[in-house]
Amino acid sequence: MLISQEWFTTMIIIAVFIPIISVIALFMIMGYEKEFRLMKVKQQNVELEKDFQQSKYMQLNAQIQPHFLFNTINLILGYARLDEKRQLVNTIENFSQYLRFSYQVQDQLIPLSMEFEQTKKYLAIQQARFESYLTIEYEVDSEVYDALVPPYTLQTLTENAFKHGLEKKAGEKYLKILLKNDDTRLVIQVIDNGVGINLKQMEATPSGHGLDNIQRRLMLLFGKENVNLLVCPSDTGTTASVSFPLQTNKSGEEHENTPS
């Protein structure tokens, strides 16, 4: 059977152009997939920024009208009336740095060391309020200081311990903060001996929304399956903990928005 020249030419054209078309189609598909991934990353960044701004709003709003603000002002006034200059200066300095952090921090992730220092400013004020009735204990693995966390993670857990537990308890108060590396995961845990957090009541307050905000941001950053947030109340207090993959700033560059 003889093959005509036209048929032979057609077969050659098909044999040459089909692979070329296939390669072009493959590159187009790869390009669309890359564009889709970029769009997904951009969407996640938008959601993270939205949640971060919401967290900042809740934090600033909570500072404008909380009992903590009034208690601190009353503490400062008390020191002024009693002419206790050293305590007065220390409290004003801690309170000033506490507020400055909330207005200056801009990063979605900050070193845990920065978050820890901010929380200790808050605790220094609470220690001044409750004096010997409050015992604070820290248990920190040295390697976690460089771990990156969303702002207000530790601070929110600590403030909740006071607002929903310790401040409602008479007598001796105890708070423990654990920051540890658990097999490449960062574990942040706050333990108190307060009255026990009422989860339903807390969910209806800004602090309850703050926990939801932290969990949402962590899930966007590390994946839903990699984040655990637990609040376990009991008759003898509450244990609140969050864990997620331990990530550090490998570039070694300082954050520009670190409060000084």
UniProtKB/TrEMBL annotation:
* SUPFAM superfamilies for the chain: ATPase domain of HSP90 chaperone/DNA topoisomerase II/histidine kinase
A GO molecular function term, named singly, is: phosphorelay sensor kinase activity
Q: Which InterPro entries match?
A: Bact_2-comp_sensor_kinase (IPR050640), HATPase_C_sf (IPR036890), HATPase_dom (IPR003594), Sig_transdc_His_kin_internal (IPR010559)
Pfam families registered for this protein in UniProt:
HATPase_c (PF02518), His_kinase (PF06580)
Polar residues bias: start-end ranges:
241-250
- Record-annotated Histidine kinase/HSP90-like ATPase domain positions: 154-247
Alphabetized, the UniProt keywords read: Kinase, Membrane, Transferase, Transmembrane, Transmembrane helix
The taxonomic lineage of its organism, from the top, reads: Bacteria, Bacillati, Bacillota, Bacilli, Bacillales
Keyword field contains Chloroplast: no
For bias type Basic and acidic residues, the affected ranges are 251-260
Which segments cross the bilayer? 12-32
Positions the record marks as coiled coil are none
Q: Which residues form the Signal transduction histidine kinase internal region domain?
A: 57-132
Task: Provide the residue span(s) of the region labelled Disordered.
Answer: 241-260
Give the UniProt entry's GO cellular component terms: membrane
Under which name does UniProt file this protein? Sensor histidine kinase
Q: Does the keyword Transmembrane apply?
A: yes
